[in-house]
Amino acid sequence: MLSSCGAGAESVTKPDRWACPRPEVLKGVGKMGATYPRLVRPPLERTEAGYWYIPVPNGVHYRVKRIWVNRRLLDVRKEKYKAWRDAPEEEREVAEFKKGALFTWMNTEKGNIVIKPCDVGFPIEDLRLLYSGCGYRGYGKIEYKEPPKARVIYQGEAYHSPRGSLGVEQCHLIVCTEGLRVSITRTGRLYGSWSQMDFIVKKVNGEWKLLEMVEDDLEKHLE
Predict the structure, then answer these.
(1) 142 contacts 170 by C-beta, under 8 angstroms
(2) Domain assignments of the chain as residue spans, ordered by start
(3) Is cis: bond before 55, omega within 30 of 0?
(4) Nearest Cα residue to 139 out of 166, 174, 162
(5) 19 backbone dihedrals φ, ψ, rounded to 5°
(6) CA–CA separation, 127 vs 125, rounded Å?
(7) d(CA 134, CA 119)
(8) Which residue, 36, 39, 49, 50, is CA-closest to 78?
(9) Given 3-state DSSP classes, what are the helix, strand and coil percentages for the chain, each rounded to the nearest 5?
(10) Per-residue pLDDT of the chain (223 residues; tens, 9 = 90+)
């Protein structure tokens, strides 16, 4: 029990280590297993007891860290589905973040992270997972250049194989801020692609994007 925030989600009953399966972790795969930086909406998953959380990749064997989400931040509804084409129709709960909701986060005494409502918090629509990408059999690293301040809720690692021999990339749960500057370094086999590049987080047509940065003296000649 708790002591005291997207995309749609499905009810799951799998244990932690399988809550973030390999295909989800490997979204954005490029040539021969090289992956690239990306911002994605955090998924929502549900325990058998009915509590919702964001699964953040967190180490070997596709384990995840559960970032718990207070139910008041969610719109939960029931929908009908079939487990396979000829299966009987069943009901399940799905959830998405409430539009316009504000949140903050806290750590419980036992080290759990909880995203909860707050009247003077951050917009829940600004919550994203930032992946560094990495080269084949390499590693990816995320660093922030302030200002503005980077608001990182949790830092995890996405393994591309059970023990990471095919590659490991950092994965941060962050609050997006206009103009946030991100420096990403990738090692491993990159097949001619870049190993270090700076990016900037900007909202484009209502959606947060991770855009390649150019030097100030060059930008003024391109606009």
Answers:
(1) yes
(2) 9-219
(3) no
(4) 166
(5) -70, -20
(6) 6
(7) 38
(8) 50
(9) 10, 50, 40
(10) 443 333 334 333 333 433 444 445 455 444 456 789 999 999 999 999 999 999 999 888 888 999 999 999 999 999 888 888 888 888 889 999 999 999 999 999 999 999 999 999 999 999 999 999 999 999 999 999 988 899 999 999 999 888 889 999 999 999 999 999 999 999 999 988 999 999 999 999 999 999 998 776 676 677 7
Residue whose structure tokens are 């297993």: 33
Query: By the 8 A CB rule, do 21 and 28 touch?
Result: no
Q: Can you read off the two tokens belonging to residue 101? A: 């909701």
| Predicted model pTM | 0.82
Residue 63 Rama label (left phi>0; alpha psi -120 to 50; beta): beta
**DSSP assignment, residue 24?**
H
DSSP string, 135-193: -BT-EEEEEEESSSPPEEEEEEEEESSTTSTT-EEEEEEEE--TTEEEEEEE-SB-TT-
Query: DSSP readout, 31-76?
Result: GGG-B--EEEPPPEEE-TTS-EEEEEEBSGGG-EEEEEE-GGGEEE
